[in-house]
Request: fold
Amino acid sequence: MAGMLAFYHTTVGKKIVMAVTGVMMFFWLLGHMVGNLQIFLGPDKINGYAHFLHGGAAEILVVVRTVMIIAVLLHILAAVQVTLANWAARPVGYSVKKDIETSYAARTMIWTGPLILIYLIYHLLMFTYLKVGPGISETDVYHNVVEAFQVPLISGIYIVAMIMLAFHLWHGAWSMLQTLGANHPKYNRLRKIVATGLSVIIAVGFVSVPVAVLLGFIR
Reply:
């Protein structure tokens, strides 16, 4: 345990924690997206899936949620500590700054991370705890989703949040592969393809639901 804590106190240790927790969150997002896409199969399918999660798989769901909460907290802690360390290492800003070895996604990570967290809380209040938004049924998930996404403002906020998530995932996947040792001209093109592919899959999968509701494909 002492060795693990000592390793975490290094910058590399914090980045590895960010990478590992990032992978965990990606697979959670992927599973959540697959569950959401069942709405295209009709009310019975997605409502049956929700009933299964909160019925037969309720204990497993509690364990998964607990693990993911810990992963999110560790990810945030490591990210904040790495950012503060970077700022401390360069207390005086550049007189002329050229972002050659970085990207828009990288430069906006400090903003997209907190904004995604704020939206996550709002999203849980709307679809899990039914404290905000037009959805009121504890058993009819299909109804709650359609009622919410028929409101253009709710759909718009959701779509913007998913776009921010895509940027965050793109840089996160790129950095994770770099942290794990895939930083070489031979692999950089593949890193870019993987990072882009993962972020696009997640963004398109999630955004397809409100878009389908707004266009009337899901009623």
Q: What stands out?
A: The longest helix spans residues 58-89. The chain has one domain: 2-214.
